Amino acid sequence: MQSRKFHFDSALTPQGWSRDVTVSLDGAGMITQVGPGEGGEHVSGIAVPAVPNVHSHAHQRFMLGLAERAGPGADSFWTWREAMYGFALRLSPDDLEAVAAQLYVEMLKAGFSVVGEFQYLHHGPDGTPYSDPAEMSLRCFAAAQHAGIGITILPTLYAFGGFGGQPPVPGQRRFLNHAERFLKIVDNLSIQARGDASRHVGISPHSLRAVTPELLREVIAGLPPDAPIHVHVAEQVKEVDDCLAFCGLRPVELLMREFDLTDRWTAIHATHMTPAEMVALARSGAIAGLCPTTEANLGDGIFPATQFMGQGGAIAIGSDSHITVSPAEDLRMLEYSQRLRDRTRNALAGGPGQSTGRTLYDAAFRGGARSMRQPVGAIAPGCRFDVTVLDADHPLLAGRAEDSALDTWIFSGGNPLVRDVFVGGRHVVKDRHHINEDLIARNFRAALRRLDT
Ligand code: NGQ
Ligand code: ZN
Fold first, then answer.
1. Does pTM surpass 0.90?
2. How many structural domains are present in the chain?
């Protein structure tokens, strides 16, 4: 690619909102300069840094709308999980690639530019590894490339069925690895990511139910020292109770006793914490990877966001099971959970007079960039040009600018206000259309027909 320039009427930069901004890019899609004045290609609308989607299980997108019917007994997270395992056993590599590509198109159209793929469907349906044990994760790379989204692949380390190394259940057979084969997966992915700025590799120990601290330490010792680590923790009350019964500690306490958490770590959910755990997690620098629409859908509970952010804790957002795919909706759900719990308004705004949407949006793109460990998260020199452009001509944005435009986007229902999205300087969503959306949708429909949903 050539070096280029884009001109925006309005843009959110680290210095705040600026009018008439020209952004220069190098041939690799990295920002070299941001300054006042006109020049280059004019893109109409309001430019904001695109948000990373730090927690995705792409395979779950294909059960969308198929788990919302009351079961014979009481429904819970755990009955949903049984149903999800049933769906997960049916996907072939081609199916996963088709489902993930469609999902990634939807993410881009909603304003996300990077996905953290927490990928645990490693082996064939009977549990036999593919000839390349990284096959399924490589399909996520292929889907991301086709869609043009940045990806931090987080192959999942999964070995056990419960705290203390309990045996896995048959429904988990596609997920399981020992340290050696797992590190082979990481290596094979790293080879494919080398020299590609839109790909990055980390790991995701599934949870302290699925790995022991000893196994995880062995794997971490085989990784580059700054590879990101994402782990589910304390999502459900039953998980907290089982952890207490196993070792007398709660999951976040156990995680922090066993590992020295830093901003290399993202704690997914961390819903159920005591005030002391919450303060310790916030001070560790670890990012809380929140998935508010999935957490609501699965009946997890309410994350203590006012307290955690009040302690300076970093957050990021993820669409997780993809029951909804929208940064605006996840941020709105996060704010509403606090309002409903506390019977207040503007619960997460930074302070008097500050915009709630702006506080949340800043937190999500900054925390998201750290969690993904990719050079994104600001319209500033040295960052990748990952930018979401809101449609200033949309009737809902008439008379709205800057923070009020962000608040309107986040509180109005979201996605229709996103007009253009750039990833690494590539214009992947143009006037609400993704550049490959027809072909990707055709492949997705064919996969759903094969899967007979
Ligand atoms: C997952 N999903 O791994 O997809 C989990 C459910 C589990 C969410 N936690 C399975 N939202 O936690 O064991
Ligand atoms: Zn998850």
1. yes
2. 2
